[in-house]
Description:
Layout: H1 2-28, E1 46-49, E2 54-56, E3 64-70, H2 75-91, E4 96-102, H3 110-120, E5 126-128, H4 133-137, E6 145-149, E7 155-160, H5 165-173
Parallel strand pairs: 3-4, 4-5
Antiparallel strand pairs: 1-2, 1-5, 3-6, 6-7
Amino acid sequence: MKKVLQRRITLIALLFAIVSSIVIIATSIDSSSEGMMIGEEAINLHLEDENGHLQSLEQYKGKTIILNFWASWCDICIDEMPDLISMYEHNKEKDVVIIGINRTTTEITKERAYESIEELQINFPILFDLEDEASQMYQVVYLPKTVIIDKDFKVRNQFEGKVTEEMLALMIEEL
């Protein structure tokens, strides 16, 4: 009888430990890892451009902003660059701006990022996330990540993975 009671107590303690662990894990998961909420105010960034000058994302307020987080080692990022370049060319006279944000902390060297910009002939502004702050603020987990910000500086769409010019055109057409 004592052994049966002891087994039940052990089983209850084990179940309690498992349930407690699940609750602790569930409450510690950061729900923001899914990305910024659609409709949420965009986070202003202050990042260096190719010339070392500090640029603010807010300076583009009033325009539709396409933020593209990328790195030179990311094959998918490199594959989508021609579409981003074309999108920029077709929309540079409109109120649409594309801004590439290089995840510089993931690069072998910053110079490798510069080489990629030159090799790919990227013609839109590139900012450098030297401390990975922008990537953290915009909850970038996978590359590439594209965030669409409307003229009112609200996040309207975000996408992880390769985007095409057609996809981007549809996303901004809805704004």
